[in-house]
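Our preliminary data section would be incomplete without showing what the modeling component actually yields. Below, a chain of 238 amino acids is followed by its predicted structure, encoded as tokens that our downstream tools consume directly.
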Amino acid sequence: MARFREIDFRPTPMGDLILRERWDPVAKQDLLEIKLGDEFLMSSLFTVAEIALGHLATAECDGTDLDVVVGGLGLGCTALAVLEDPRVRSLVVVDALPEVIEWHREHLIPAGTTLTTDARCRLVHGDFFAGLRDGGELNPDAPGHLWHAVVVDIDHTPTHHLHPSHADLYDEAGLNRVVARLHPGGVFALWSDDPPDETFMATLAATFPEVRAEVVTFDNPLLGTVASNTVYLARTPR
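Predicted structure:
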């Protein structure tokens, strides 16, 4: 049995991007993985928290006909979880790597079968962080559009970023730009690989009136331990 199967390899300005399938003898299953340079962006072995991110974000939303934007596509787990809420009217998923979007459109990643055929969903190539800055747009087809939820799964943590240009999302000015893109009572949801960060929680609380951190636990069969990620949730004034 082959241990590795490289499905696709693409050089990008951010580093070599690899989609591969790997048999893991400890987990006793084939894993689908995305690597960017030396960074593991996603593994199909660890998707519990990404799924929880999508579910928690929509569960926090009031009303119906929800418009949601997700920053970061990856293996599509968060986007699929958002679409499971029947109240979602539209979903825009923004990713800086056109290759990842192409993998979904070519169905090299299983989630792409649903994401590219659900009429509510659009996959958009773009810089999510630039889209939040003054003059930027997260949905170029609808300038000034407001969202019921802004969901982010891109960086490892609020302080460990894939690129230095992402840092300005996580201070008060950046979070206020998120507020400006949300409806009253709108939700900001953020995935993090680390336990809740009290400094970042304080920054969130200085910007949003309602904030909390949900710790999501899951089994790590590679280490035989229970691992955890964090989902930060914040809401604008209703």
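The domain at 47-235 is CATH 3.40.50.150 (Rossmann fold). The chain has one domain: 47-235. Preliminary results of this kind motivate Aim 1 of the renewal.
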